[in-house]
Write a structure and sequence with these properties.
The protein is α/β, with parallel strands linked by helices. The chain folds into 2 domains: 5-144, no CATH class; 151-371, Rossmann fold (3-Layer(aba) Sandwich), CATH 3.40.50. It is 35% helix and 16% strand. It has 16 helices and 13 strands. It has helices at 33-36, 78-86, 105-114, 147-158, 188-197, 214-220, 222-232, 241-244, 267-271, 290-297, 309-316, 323-326, 334-346, 349-358, 360-371, 377-386, and strands at 5-9, 21-24, 29-32, 47-49, 59-65, 90-96, 122-126, 135-136, 139-143, 177-182, 208-211, 273-278, 302-304. Strands 4-1-5-6-7-9-8 form a 7-stranded mixed beta sheet. α5 links the parallel β10 (177-182) and β11 (208-211).
Amino acid sequence: MQIEYNFILDNILDHPYDPIWFTHPARDSKVGVEYLFPFDNFPINSVYHTGWLDRLKGIKFIIYWAQLPRYWEIVLSEQCISSLQNDPDCYLLIHSVHEARFDNIDKVSDQIYKFKIPFNKVIMLTSDIEIDGKIKNNLKQVWVDNYWEALCRKHHKTFTNTSIVHPDQYTLKHVDRKFLSLNRNLKRHRLQWMYAMRNENLDITPQGHVSFHLPAWQDSMPDHYQHVMNNWRKPEAGIPDQNFETMTLDSLNPLTDITISNSNALTEFYQRSYFSVITESDDRLPFITEKTFKTIACMHPFMIVGNKKMHEQLRNKGYHTFEEYFERDGVETQEEMIEFCEWINSKDMEFFQKKTEKVLDKLTDNFYNYISGSVDWNNIVRKVIGSL
């Protein structure tokens, strides 16, 4: 039996002829509905503004974007709060799939309590597979598989300025470095990876196209920069104090602030290297983002630094991973990162040329699996409705 449902946008922007946007009051910005819901078969014609709350039949989901851990404030109109309190068919659907971690979820829960909205009227969409179907801080969690894959694929299929290497255009004749490693936000595993590449005994950065943003973070977010320094500049983290401050690296020339974006300015760096080393957004949770999917779209073998379950999750979705190519089943610890860099250093360009030629069929399979793949919204909404 088909269940009738609709989506309600609070604070919608009234711009006729434009795509559907609504304001995010906690961020003072606008958010596109198709950015939040890039999934296949998302019913864009079932989206309404709050004036329809009392007129629509069936289940009504009020959409709210809360990008935990950074943006957690919930701002709702009195009409939405009243409907959530009194309409048995009205629910709050909190969209929090951009990140896998849930710091500040207690603050979201406190706000729901202060609004006097029953907790059984609230569902939170999450990217943390480990809490799928569970209740955290009184909020029901529904895992979304996989938001970043759906969004990145939509960009690659509809935009003309994305990084992409079609199998028909694939060539190794432009390669001048062994690897590509794009890094931006300051995180523990990225600092450890930097130290592995540039330590007292070895510096392999000239063998790759490598980008970090330590100087930019130190200037723009000094408190966060110092927090990370204080917490990870310790012997037990594998990073000696005396070397930490000297580990700075400029952005890729001519790139600056877009080194982790999906811009087509990055395409040449994929074409000029054999493989990618990916420092995903999280090294402990199995959370895969555009950083991996754009690598697949650019026909690169890859190694994700962090939890090996990320490779397993990709294989479960039909993708090839490259443990045989790299002669290891993963890279997680500081010691494994250093050993990996020593292995890269010990091999010449011809070695990786031959390795890459042997996996061309896998790279092609990955490309078409990605481009033709689907993250079906119907599967997600069935889980959401099943949790009511």
